[in-house]
Amino acid sequence: MTNPLSTILRSKTKTVEISRSLPTVMIGERINPTGRKKVQEALAAGKYDIVRKDAIEQVRAGAQVLDINAGVPGLDERALLTAIMQEVMAVVDVPLCIDTANPEALEAALKLYEGKPLINSVNGERRSLQTVLPLAKAYHAAVIGLCMDDNGIPRTAEGRLSAAAKIIQQATQMGIPIEDIVIDPLAMALSADSQSARIALQTIELVVKEFGVNITVGASNISYGMPDRPYLNSAFIAMAIHAGLTCPITNPLVVENTTAILAGDLARGKDEDGMRWIRAYRQRQRAAAGAAAD
Ligand code: THG
C-alpha cells in the first residue's frame, strides 16, 4: 500500500486536510439545483435564501467542504456560480468544491475564490485535460479526476484505473502535486447495472494501491431509481470507506449518511476510543430531547 497522501483545502480562515489516516471528510452535496425545481425557480428569480440555508445547515450537520453546482438550464452558469459562491461565503467559512463542466464558469469561480478550492472536475478526455488542468495549476487548486476518457466510462475497474492514471500522469507532468488530485471512481445507478457499485469499489482499491491519492464519490448516485435509497447509500459509503474512500460527496442532513461515515471510520480504526461516534450519538439525543420539548 502506498503512503496516504494529504490533500489540503483552504477557505479564508479554515484549513481542511483530507487523508486516509484521518477521519473521512464530508463534502455537502445539497447546493445543486439539478432535479430541484423549487431551487431552480428561486435562483431564476434571484432569490438565494435556500442556498444560504442549505449552506448553514450542511455545515452544522458536519460538512467540512461544500460542493457548489449552479447548473440551471437557461441561466448563465458563470454569473450564477459566482453569485451562489458569494452568498455561501457570506454565511459559512468552509472550503468549496466548484462543481462545473463549464470552463468559463470555472475560471470566474477560481478568480473570485479566496482560498484553495477543490475543482469538480477534470476527466481523461483530451479536451477536459487541456482546459481544466491549466486552470488547476494556475490557481493552485486541488482537482477531482473522474475515471473516464475519450471512450466514455470504462466498464471494468482496470479500465477506470487507466483513466485515473492518465489524469494523474498529465497533471503531475504539468507540475500539479499528486496530493492535489482526488480521484472519483464514478458510482453509477445500481438500478441500471447491478455491478456498478462493485466496479466502483474495486476501482477505489486499485487506485489507492497504485497511487495512494484521496478518493471522492457521489455516494447517492448508486441508489438512483431504487426504493429505500438511504439504506443502499449508507451500506455503500461504509464499504467504500473500507476500500479507501476519503471524502464522499453526500447529503449530511441524512442521518444514514453521517452514521455510515462515522461507523466506517470507527471500523477502520480512524476514531480513537469511538469518541466521534459517541459524540454524534449524544448530539442526536440532545436534538431529539430539544424537539420533544418544543
Ligand atoms: N461525482 C462528482 N461530483 C458530483 C457527482 C459525482 N456532483 C453531482 C453529483 N454527482 C453529486 N451531488 C448530488 C446532489 C444531489 C443528489 C445527488 C447527488 C440528490 N438529490 C435528490 C434527488 O435527486 O433525489 C434531490 C434533492 C434533495 O431533496 O436532497 O440525490 O458522482 N465528482
Please describe the topology of this protein:
Blueprint: E1 7-10, E2 15-18, E3 27-31, H1 37-44, H2 49-60, E4 65-69, H3 77-91, E5 96-99, H4 103-112, E6 118-124, H5 126-138, E7 142-149, H6 157-173, E8 181-184, H7 196-211, E9 214-215, H8 229-243, E10 249-250, H9 255-267, H10 275-293
Parallel strand pairs: 3-4, 3-10, 4-5, 5-6, 6-7, 7-8, 8-9
Antiparallel strand pairs: 1-2
Helix pairs in contact: 2-3, 3-4, 6-7, 7-8, 8-9
The structure holds (6S)-5,6,7,8-tetrahydrofolate.
(6S)-5,6,7,8-tetrahydrofolate binds at residues 29-30, 32, 35-36, 99, 120-121, 144, 184, 216, 218, 220-221, 249, 251.
Task: Please give a structural write-up.
The structure is a single chain. With 294 residues, the protein is of the alpha/beta class. The chain has helices at residues 37-44, 49-60, 77-91, 103-112, 126-138, 157-173, 196-211, 229-243, 255-267, 275-293; strands at 7-10, 15-18, 27-31, 65-69, 96-99, 118-124, 142-149, 181-184, 214-215, 249-250. The strands form two sheets. An eight-stranded parallel beta sheet has the order 9-8-7-6-5-4-3-10, with helices on one face. Strand 1 (7-10) and strand 2 form a beta hairpin. It starts with 6 loop residues before the first strand and ends with a helix. The model has no long low-confidence stretch (mean pLDDT 97). (6S)-5,6,7,8-tetrahydrofolate binds next to strand 3 and strand 6.
